[in-house]
Amino acid sequence: MAEAEEQETGSLEESTDESEEEESEEEPKLKYERLSNGVTEILQKDAASCMTVHDKFLALGTHYGKVYLLDVQGNITQKFDVSPVKINQISLDESGEHMGVCSEDGKVQVFGLYSGEEFHETFDCPIKIIAVHPHFVRSSCKQFVTGGKKVCSVKERHASEMRDLPSRYVEIVSQFETEFYISGLAPLCDQLVVLSYVKEISEKTEREYCARPRLDIIQPLSETCEEISSDALTVRGFQENECRDYHLEYSEGESLFYIVSPRDVVVAKERDQDDHIDWLLEKKKYEEALMAAEISQKNIKRHKILDIGLAYINHLVERGDYDIAARKCQKILGKNAALWEYEVYKFKEIGQLKAISPYLPRGDPVLKPLIYEMILHEFLESDYEGFATLIREWPGDLYNNSVIVQAVRDHLKKDSQNKTLLKTLAELYTYDKNYGNALEIYLTLRHKDVFQLIHKHNLFSSIKDKIVLLMDFDSEKAVDMLLDNEDKISIKKVVEELEDRPELQHVYLHKLFKRDHHKGQRYHEKQISLYAEYDRPNLLPFLRDSTHCPLEKALEICQQRNFVEETVYLLSRMGNSRSALKMIMEELHDVDKAIEFAKEQDDGELWEDLILYSIDKPPFITGLLNNIGTHVDPILLIHRIKEGMEIPNLRDSLVKILQDYNLQILLREGCKKILVADSLSLLKKMHRTQMKGVLVDEENICESCLSPILPSDAAKPFSVVVFHCRHMFHKECLPMPSMNSAAQFCNICSAKNRGPGSAILEMKK
Predict the structure, then answer these.
(1) Using CA atoms, how far apart are residues 291 and 278, in angstroms rounded to an integer?
(2) Which of 72, 180, 558, 598 falls 20 to 30 Å from 647 in CA-CA distance?
């Protein structure tokens, strides 16, 4: 029977109300386990009535008057036959050497556990409570207290309050009412642990019955209390127990609480972090459990972060949250390659390789190539875009490139024009340094990265026969690239390759000419025809800027195509200005352009030709009258106009001629005034300069004989001539003035064509 009972209850989960625990989302504060070993043996024959706890051992009293000393595992270490009746209370001093016992027959005993010391007292009523002085071992503290009914605290009285009062007093700590019977109390920090006896009424029979006892943690307030937690305990025989059959003892140092009933002793402990994680895992709160384990990894003993993480991944997979499970693998699996590979195979089994692919490690660690190839094959079978994305994102050394290339080529046999596969194959060729094949695919696809590929891997030798393809794809980029790399692909080679595509040939040569007018001079004759055919707007600028273009050939082409403006320019450049002017007048009928041309040439004969051609054309005469005034005398034109000819806007034209003439007169007068003012100013400046004195001393020399200008003997007579140019001569060293002019001039300045400098001073003595 004892074995059957042990099978019924014996674990933490069995000692609590499972139905309430499953429904509640609030985590319990305590955990429970039965005290077994010797206790089980005792309670098979007897019933527990009380218990007390010491740091070193436990003391259990029974209904048959026996006291057992137990270790913390419940093993019997000593046995005392104290009374023939029920033991009500046991008390120990701090040292654990003296024990006080009170029983139902009114007897109180205090005796030494390891000595013969013993005290007896008998009362005429049952004694329910006994408390031995904490320092009973001392001779001055041989005291104990008995009682039977308050919750109180015994305190020492202050010396100032002594007078005739006892040295100690009892203080009520807290007082409040509950809705249940209290079988035991114990402190837990500033809270109370309460063992309560509960009776409930059956819904079927409407009769009162004994329910499971409850262990509550409450927060005492001034006149009430607040429930923190409440656990229903499944103890053996709870259906027959009364309130007085339950007792609560505690070990303050370890926060252990002992629930004593006649047939059972249950130990309650504060839950540690491992228990907290257990509860979270039980409630399937894996994220919180993982976080709690990471925060307290130094304190947990029964759990490992990795195990919790793996359980979390499994839970997410079972629930169908494959993407979240895959994302959590990054954090949980970390750098453990073996676990990564194991999880990948698990995802493969459930057909979710795509879910884990974005999170696979790509550097540290690196998995086996087979893992990456397996995922690439999965995408290749069902998702070309996803396959292409992985090829772009994954380094090429993660997998066997040749295997994947072959797989892609096999798929292209079924769908040869699939751009996604072709582009991906080109990228794979690039990883494999097979740049030629990659370039060919990029050109076929007209992919924007083709030029970057050529530059990055210096593939100019591979594109010599693909210039037309490059130009067809993007002529601007292709020409820029070819011109920037003339040393790798010559101009001659490019022109030859484009021989059958003259429109592309023109684009290349035009860009070359814009960069350097001389570099492609050998092709300037060819370019005349190309400009004429494909780009006439740029033909005239080309003819103007080129110094290597054969003018006769250009003139022939322009005349064949009736390009008047270009022909006019060529005729002018070849010196045939009169023919050019005639063409402007006869072909273009543009007097303004003709006048502009005549102005540029600044040739009187051209103006004569223009006037002769225009004399019978009134609109042309108007144009000439409006523009000729500043270049040709308008009278020459006016005299030739036939009398009676109607000329549009003649009055306005004549007014303009007069205005232009007046403007010229005003400009001349203004210039004359400025010239006179400047001349006068300079004359005054010269006069002031010439009026200044000139220093003549021993250091000056005669510019003719090179002797000192002043004689060494100051008493001798001398004659010196000093010019305004500061040159000095002995008078006898100067030539005699001519008969026509008495003025003398500086020989040096006259010789240098600086203009003669007249003498300003003649010194004599």
Answers:
(1) 13
(2) 598
What digits encode the pLDDT tens for the residues 440-463? 787 777 777 778 778 777 778 777
- The 10 Å CB-count burial string (b at 16+, else e) for 167-198 is eeeeeeeeeeeeebebbbebebeebbbbbbbb
Whether the bond into 735 is cis, omega within 30 of 0: no
Q: Is the dihedral of CA 415, 419, 424, 427 positive or negative?
A: positive
Q: How far apart are CA 586 and CA 567, in angstroms?
A: 13
Local structure of 548: helix, strand or coil:
coil
> Crossing angle of helices 591-601/564-573, nearest 10°?
20
484: helix, strand or coil? helix
Q: What is the pLDDT of residue 547?
A: 84
CA distances from 429 to 362, 402, 437 (A): 20, 9, 7
- What is the enclosing helix (H) or strand (E) of 494? helix 491-497
Phi, psi dihedral angles at 383 (to 5 degrees): -150, 90
Q: What is the dihedral of CA 328, 331, 337, 342, to 10 degrees?
A: -20
What DSSP state is assigned to residue 397? G
Residues composing the chain? 765
DSSP result, 564-618? HHHHHHHHHHTT-HHHHHHHIIIII--HHHHHHHHHHHT-HHHHHHHHHHHTT-H
Q: Does pTM surpass 0.90?
A: no
Answer left, alpha or beta for residue 317, where phi above 0 means left and psi between -120 and 50 means alpha. Answer: alpha
Give CA angle at 163 (160, 167), nearest 5°: 80
Contact 216, 197 (CB under 8 A): no
Q: Residue 718: CB partners within 8 Å, gap ≥ 6? A: 710, 711, 730, 763, 764, 765
Structural tokens at position 739? 């008969």
Q: Give the chain's residues under pLDDT 70.
A: 1-25, 147-149, 151-154, 159-164, 169-176, 222, 604, 609, 614-617, 619, 621-646, 649-654, 657-658, 738-743, 751-765
pLDDT digit string, tens, across residues 172-214? 666 667 778 888 888 888 888 898 888 888 888 878 888 889 8
Q: Within 13 Å and on the Cβ side, how many CA atoms surround 341?
A: 11
